Amino acid sequence: MNIILIGLLRPFSILYGWITSFRNLLFDWGIKSSKSFDLPIINVGNITVGGTGKSPHVEYLIRLLQPYYLLATLSRGYGRKTKGYLLANPHSTAEDLGDEPMQFYQKFGHQISVAVSEKRVLGVSELMTGVHPEVIVLDDAFQHRAIKPSLNIVLIDFQRPIFKDFPFPAGRLRENRTGLKRADIVIVSKCPDNLGKAQQQGFIQKLKPYLNEASPVFFSTIQYGEVTSCIDDWVLQIPKKVVLLSGIAQPQLFENYAKATFEIIENIVYPDHYSYTKADIEKVLAILEKAEIGAQGVLMTEKDMVKIKPLLADFPDKQHLFYYLPIQIGFDANQKKQFDELILSHCQMHVS
Known about the structure:
Function: Transfers the gamma-phosphate of ATP to the 4'-position of a tetraacyldisaccharide 1-phosphate intermediate (termed DS-1-P) to form tetraacyldisaccharide 1,4'-bis-phosphate (lipid IVA).
Helix content: 25-40%
Structural class: alpha/beta
Radius of gyration: 21 Å
Order of helices and strands: HEHEEHHEHEEEHEEEEHEHEHEEH
Strand order of the largest sheet: 3-4-2-5-1-6-7-8
Number of domains: 2
Oligomer: single chain
Strand content: 15-25%
Low-confidence stretches: none
Family: Belongs to the LpxK family.
Largest sheet: 8 strands, mixed
CATH architecture of the largest domain: 3-Layer(aba) Sandwich
InterPro entries: LpxK (IPR003758), P-loop_NTPase (IPR027417)
Mean pLDDT: 91
CATH class of the largest domain: Alpha Beta
Pathway: Glycolipid biosynthesis; lipid IV(A) biosynthesis; lipid IV(A) from (3R)-3-hydroxytetradecanoyl-[acyl-carrier-protein] and UDP-N-acetyl-alpha-D-glucosamine: step 6/6
Protein name: Tetraacyldisaccharide 4'-kinase
């Protein structure tokens, strides 16, 4: 967004910031109510519109907590074609749940319960009366203040720090920067692998005016896994030349990693939470067919895979051309130990 346009939109950003701050005050003063529950509810949210890496952080918490607790995740289910509360089952699709909850279910559904509900209070109540979880991980409910989590984790994208951003529409903030004071833990996500202690401290100093002094700050990185075939029993033949395909909020890290690892024939980018169609698959296959010999596949994100994989049933002789790149998040050894202990001790203290 250019400087002139930002200047024109700043008055609307100020107004938007006032409105969101006033709404927060109504909750802080008890005029609008927040419901708490008698079990640990850990929220992973942000104050930036999209792309801070909530899903891999939710998955990190699942891997950390599932060995010790009966666990459930609850998401709004953005982009789904259903309404109300829905508990994932073997017949669920991304259209039923949304892409990110479907991803959680495909990876962890045999170990945890995955639910969606635009009304989080209703969703938690349904989970408690249905599957009786000991811990619930909320996905993206920092501004959904009708529910009061026992722990609020807020992500900040290292590449788009909030101290350089503004509320919507001049910027990408969902509320004023001071909203960060509600966070119990702050994670600066998508950090460079070589981020040093001095750089971390410099980042924290710039955040300090907006932080709760008691809230620790952690720094996480994106770690890419092995290229994986969309066909479960396919003997993997890693492609060298690929059509890159993504429909995520901030595709730059994915694109940069892919460009450093593969030869990119074409890069196709769709909006976040894009609903793929059979025509989209045909378009990609047409690009592959026109490419020179050696073009070997389509590479996508895991989030895109959960929506594309069901469509591949219509292309049985082409399924082997589709691959995805899973991701996880990581901390350095000292921060990982501190973060894990903090989360586990919180749950231990709050489990009845």
